[in-house]
Amino acid sequence: MKERAKILIAYDGSACSDAALDDLKRAGLPAAVEAVVVTVADILLPPPCDQLRDAEAHAMHISESERQAQAHAERAVEEARALAERAGKLLKADFPDWEVRAEARCDSPAWAVVKLADQIDPGLVVVGSHGHSVAGGRLILGSVSQRVLHEARCSVRVARCTDERRAGPVRIVVGFNGSPDAEAAVKEVSSRTWPEGS
Question: Does pTM top 0.85 for this prediction?
Answer without folding.
Answer: no
